[in-house]
Amino acid sequence: MTRLIGRFAGRVGMPARPALLALGWFALACLLIVFLFLNSWRSTVITGLALPVSVISTFIIMNALNFTLNVLTLMGLSLAIGLLIDDAIVVRENIVRHMHHGADHYTAAREATSEIGLAVMATTFTIVAVFVPVAFMGGVIGRFFYQFGITVGFAVLVSLYVSFTIDPMMSSRWYDPAADPNVPRRWLGRRLQFLNDQLDRLRYVLARVLGWSLAHRWAVVLLGVVSIVSSFGIFARLGSAFMPESDEGQFRVNYKAAPSVSLDRSIAIARELAAEIVKNPGVAYTYATIGGSGRPINEGSVFVKLKEREGRPHQLEIMADMRSRMQRFRALRVSVGTAEDHAGAAKPIQISVRGADLGRMNAIAERVMNEMRQVPGAADVDTSEEQPRPEVRVAVDRIAAADLGLDLGGIASTVRGLVAGEIVSKFEDADGDSYDVRLRVEPSERARAGDLMTLDLPARSGSRLTPLSQVARLESGTAPSNIRHLDLVREIRVSAATQDRSLGEVMTDIKTRLAALDLPAGYSITFTGDYEQMMESFGYALNALALAVVLIYAILASQFRSFLQPFAIMLSLPLSLIGVAGMLYIVGDTLNIMSMIGIILLMGLVTKNAILLIDFTNVQRREGLPRHEAIIEAAQVRLRPILMTTLAMIFGMLPLALEWGAGAEFRAPMARAVIGGLITSTLLTLIVVPVVYTYLDDIARKLRAIHARSSPTGAEAYHEP
After folding, report:
1. Rg for the chain, CA atoms, rounded
2. Less CB within 10 Å around the terminal CB: N or C of the chain?
3. Given 479, 506, 526, which residue is the final one in a domain?
4. What angle do CA 566, 638, 615 make, to 5 degrees?
5. Count of C-beta atoms within a 10 Å radius of residue 393
């Protein structure tokens, strides 16, 4: 019987089925939101056309760049569903609003699309400005998310084309009775009208709240400042990690015995470990490997496959139980790691002790290990240095050997050939497979070190044989089991895993303790492993975030023809952080690569609401409405598309946030960051952004007044609403 031992494709190679299900749920949730708010199946169909057209068109760029349908590209497509339908929702909602005001479907499609065009273009270009830096980040994270960023960016651009072409065309040609207020509604429409009635009440409440906010601007600004400052305080309390910890259903128990153990004893050790491991009720089966891949026979690993997730505790709990069970094997150096962790080389904490003298490095490594063992959360602390390997040296008497016609090279090659063996021929079986034929002395004649002295050595003349005992003696000693180098400098690697604490928290405590060590000159301690990759990736992510902010400002400044108004729109960026930090803190997530990607994704999402609000405010002011009334009118009119796009993204993210399906734990921090940020940003944007807009408008008025007084042509300068 053949059994699949395990799956080692990594997170990117996880089954695509959960990602496809998430994509389908996302599309269904978005269409349901459209139907509930617009109360029309025709509007749902017109809006939903953006999804298949954009997704299928994205396969063009994926094929051109040789992308595959992996977890990252599918995750990008599933996220893009919420982004793709955003443009279509905004355009179609504006068309329906114009039809409710009495315009025919052709006029409504033409005028509504033209009216909302600037805002839709600005939102789409800001999203592209966010994902392009993500695609071209450096380091491991850049290679990881290159396909993700390109896929989403191209899909969003296609959705913009669909929103400006197919949606208006379908709206102008396909009459929708549900958008005509004079057409009586059927039973389902009358029941869904209840939602629109509640929305009208919410508009009234928003107008009252916004009126109070504009009258008490200082209090609203204070609220915004407090929320932003509080978010940084919560972020400081979050742990940090390179990747989210997920339940993969498999892990590995690695062991190292004394270098002198035999193969039979190593096999017995592996069986004892496996017998102890299967005592945990969550274990399905084990598979032991001894040596191999360049490892000696005193090292091995036991692959542990767990039962289905529904019938056992979380993998981290089982791994913690294994660490406690392995403590009874005191003669072994045992570590518990991920399924990809062979010989403990992939532990998240890796500390390199470098220097010239091996003895002094060993002493420093011991001090490092003692400090690490005192840090809560540091588990399986170990070192790459092993016990010295016993060896027998053959000391040749050069003078005696020369007198007998023997040379040092001939003695060495003869002893090595007789003990280790020499390949003298090859054997080929019936299947055509060839095997080496190795000639060596009988095992009984090389069982003990003393047996070496009975070996006969041929002289150069070949006329006689000389026993090795006449020209050499045996000396017992030890030698290093391995010698490691990093950047051409000798090193000893100290490693550890984490348990019950995040990598960032554990490393902070370790660095604090090791900073007090007094190292000799020429010796250093370097932090590598997951911590090094985490800090590098965080740096690249922050650089991408900074570049995205600059690009967003440039796009908004060109679209709105203003240097000040983009600041009011971009205020929604920091206002989303309180929701991100609060959501991650509540659910116990860490700040990792996936949550960082969620934050970057938010930068493109949250500006959308502010763009819709500020753009329509400017439209109302150009039509002669006073600033105060224009702001309130814009908030009331744009409330429905803001709620529709926000709820579509939130409900679409729910399966990921709730960890539905295999591998969902890997993507959950990103979804939770997006959901938390959208909730707080939507609430605060509707209140804080209009207030800041008024402050910036006051500054613009004063600057124009100063410019008008200082320049004769200042009065003819461009007037900014």
Report:
1. 35
2. N
3. 479
4. 30
5. 12
